[in-house]
Specification:
140 residues; mainly alpha; 0% strand; rod-shaped
Length: 140
């Protein structure tokens, strides 16, 4: 029974298993790092969006974007907290949370788009009205 030569199974178990404390810690650290990275990415994305929005329509969009940013931050913080509290067995729940967040973000984006469209439509309508008025005046 040599301790030097171990089966692949055992090695794997050691790597992923709950027994190995150090590895657990490492994994947790890794997860934290990942979360941080995600946060950064999100922030970057938000910034980009803000830039675009600013170009398109100034103030309203800006406000909305700010709100979004705040929400994002809150969510990320919550996630971080979760990470701190959670053990590996709750990872699945974590993933579910992530998915939910993503979905929410998507919904928000959609809403924003809708809002923008509405605004545009309104503008167009106004323009049309003005034109009509002008025409009427001219004829009258």
């Amino acid at each position: 029974m040599s301790t030097m030569k171990r089966t692949e199974d055992e090695k794997e178990e050691d790597y992923y298993g709950v027994r190995n404390d150090v590895m657990m810690k490492m994994m947790k650290m890794k997860m934290m790092m990942m979360m941080m990275m995600m946060m950064m990415m999100m922030m970057m994305m938000m910034m980009m969006m803000m830039m675009v929005m600013m170009m398109m329509m100034k103030m309203m969009m800006l406000l909305m974007m700010m709100m979004m940013m705040m929400m994002m931050m809150m969510m990320m913080m919550m996630m971080m907290m979760m990470m701190m509290m959670m053990e590996m067995m709750l990872m699945k729940m974590m993933m579910m949370m992530m998915m939910m967040m993503m979905k929410m973000m998507m919904m928000m984006m959609m809403m924003m788009m809708m809002m923008m469209m509405m605004m545009m439509m309104m503008m167009m309508m106004m323009m049309m009205m003005m034109m009509m008025m002008m025409m009427m005046m001219m004829v009258w």
